[in-house]
């Protein structure tokens, strides 16, 4: 017994998560960052006397008091050995720790500086997106990659039908696909890749015989491939949210790093903390640069070629797996350079004072 066409399309919509797939291209790194803004403000600025950041600030103060004993021992030792020059320069650290950890209930100096640093990184990231993504390259390339999968999910149920039922199924599917393609045109204007997809659908709908069996099967794809693409698209959004969560976690650990900075060691924890925060920011910016530049290659290459029919599965794999790995490697290298620069500068300043 064959299912009604309307019921078939209802099942397809549920299985593929069609609305989620169509809306994915409109989401950017900036909108993800904006979604985390409330958490940042609630934790680092609003009522910091009683929230999680306040508790970690108290823990940082406890660490500072605990490490003050080690600092004083080293201070007295240096006072005897270095004839005042090095001990006096080291006295700056207790004052720095006290100033940074002073908590008025509306955020400490450290929390406000952390929010300012995050705002600066987000501003740079937004400038990258606006400058390099003038024609919505990233969203357009992403939709190019999933458009045929979405189209195939509408046409796939018609493959098992015959005669009049199949014709009616193609007509219903084409009407839904036309709505999708019109949304693309409203967003990106008249694009060659949209027209190519429209031509394929019309050839199938009106049975012009211009679409080969291979092309037809390629357009239909498979539910497995659709699910994989949907998973990889979700994976790269998960990575961007992970970046935001990691930045927030590092920000919350700032008071502990400051509190431990009185330890008489060469590499101050506050430098490691600052390096980690900047490294995550570099990873975020690097990912968006990689994604936008790769998207521009696709949109300006195969997207503008009427005869090209590329398989863009590689782009989804690149976004979901390879680009996050590459951006983390770049961030690790950049973080090491930042940490070395900060440490060398601190040593130079300590020697000059």
Describe the secondary structure blueprint for this structure.
Elements: H1 5-16, H2 18-24, H3 29-44, H4 52-81, H5 85-90, H6 92-101, H7 109-132, H8 137-155, H9 163-188, H10 192-205, H11 213-220, H12 223-252, H13 254-259, H14 269-300, H15 313-352
Helix pairs in contact: 2-8, 3-7, 3-12, 4-6, 7-14, 8-9, 8-10, 8-12, 8-14, 9-10, 12-14, 12-15, 14-15
Overview of this structure, please?
This protein has helices spanning 5-16, 18-24, 29-44, 52-81, 85-90, 92-101, 109-132, 137-155, 163-188, 192-205, 213-220, 223-252, 254-259, 269-300, 313-352. With 353 residues, the protein is mainly alpha-helical.
Brief summary:
The protein is mainly alpha-helical. It contains 15 helices and no strands.
């Amino acid at each position: 017994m064959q299912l009604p066409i309307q019921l078939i399309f209802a099942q397809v919509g549920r299985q593929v998560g069609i609305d989620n797939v169509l809306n994915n291209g409109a989401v950017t790194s900036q909108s993800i960052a904006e979604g985390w803004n409330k958490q940042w403000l609630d934790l680092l600025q609003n009522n910091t006397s009683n929230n999680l950041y306040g508790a970690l600030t108290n823990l940082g103060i406890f660490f500072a008091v605990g490490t003050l004993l080690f600092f004083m021992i080293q201070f007295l030792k240096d006072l005897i050995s270095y004839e005042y020059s090095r001990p006096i320069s080291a006295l700056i650290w207790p004052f720095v720790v006290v100033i940074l950890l002073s908590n008025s209930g509306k955020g400490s100096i450290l929390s406000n500086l952390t929010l300012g640093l995050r705002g600066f990184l987000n501003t740079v990231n937004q400038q990258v997106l606006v400058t390099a993504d003038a024609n919505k390259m990233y969203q357009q390339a992403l939709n190019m990659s999933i458009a045929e999968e979405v189209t195939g999910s509408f046409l796939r149920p018609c493959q098992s039908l015959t005669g009049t039922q199949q014709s009616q199924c193609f007509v219903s599917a084409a009407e839904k696909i036309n709505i999708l393609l019109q949304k693309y045109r409203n967003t990106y204007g008249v694009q060659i890749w949209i027209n190519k997809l429209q031509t394929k659908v019309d050839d199938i709908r009106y049975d012009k015989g211009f679409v080969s069996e291979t092309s037809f099967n390629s357009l239909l794809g498979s539910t497995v491939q659709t699910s994989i693409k949907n998973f990889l698209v979700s994976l790269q959004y998960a990575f961007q949210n992970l970046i935001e969560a990691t930045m927030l976690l590092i920000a919350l650990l700032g008071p502990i790093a400051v509190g431990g900075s009185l330890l008489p060691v060469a590499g101050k924890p506050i430098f490691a903390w600052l390096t980690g925060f900047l490294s995550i920011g570099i990873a975020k910016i690097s990912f968006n640069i990689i994604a936008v530049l790769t998207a521009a290659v696709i949109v300006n290459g195969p997207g503008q070629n009427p005869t090209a029919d590329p398989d863009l599965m590689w782009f989804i794999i690149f976004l979901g797996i390879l680009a996050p790995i590459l951006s983390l490697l770049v961030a690790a290298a950049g973080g090491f350079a930042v940490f070395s620069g900060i440490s060398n500068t601190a040593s130079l300043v300590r020697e000059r004072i």
